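As a warm-up, study this chain.
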Amino acid sequence: MSATARRELADFLRSRRRQVDPRVAGLPAGGARRTPGLRREEVALLSGVGHTWYTWLEQGRDIRPSRQVVDALARTLRMSPAEHEYVLRLAGHGAVPAGAADGMPAHVQRLLDALGPSPAYVITASWSIVGWNRAYERLYPGVATVPAADLNLLWLVFADPAVRELLGDWTTDSRRFLTQFRAEVGPRLADREVVDLVARLEVASPHFRAGWASHDVDRFSSGERRFRHPDVGELLLEHHQLTPADAPGLQLVVYTAAAGSDTAARLDRLTG
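Now compare it with the structure written out below.
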């Protein structure tokens, strides 16, 4: 593990430990506690590891927990599946996303263009936007004029007022983007591109700064998303994410009209 990954793992374990109710963990309710959550020695006992060793882990020392130990800590700390996956990857037991792709492959752009009225775009492992189709440009016209340094999905969500207006529930949607981004880049938090992006966002957005400090993570799940477009009104779109087998550093984000809605007709008007 890199020093950055060790620090992130330490901070994340502390943040989850403080959220666990001792009674839920099967511990007696009595006794004064200066801080909320479990004590380090309780986590160590419940997880079957030494107190000193676990203390070192929370201090970010140069040790690597086995997968079995990470699984035990996840059970003790009542981690969600996304949080469990996150700590596994931080500890070096999961697949780490490939780095940014070198440009936008022509065949991937052709795939985007073939999607017709379904808005779609492509991001790198650090969420830089490297391609989109005509439908997405109609959905979010600003994408074609954003300076290259700002053409990052997370930056646009938190820093572009037009995106804020476009999202159906910006507070909830932006938080979802943030937690998914952190889950994806956790093992690469020391990468210069990620460091610079986070630093800029912490200055630009108090909402981002508070969310980032929480260390919350979540995994992506397909589902319906609401958009408010100034020309065609409300759009109910199903959100999908795909990774090309021959370009694993890229993710295709595709929005299709939700079943049972009039969104398909609205997309036709938008792209017609």
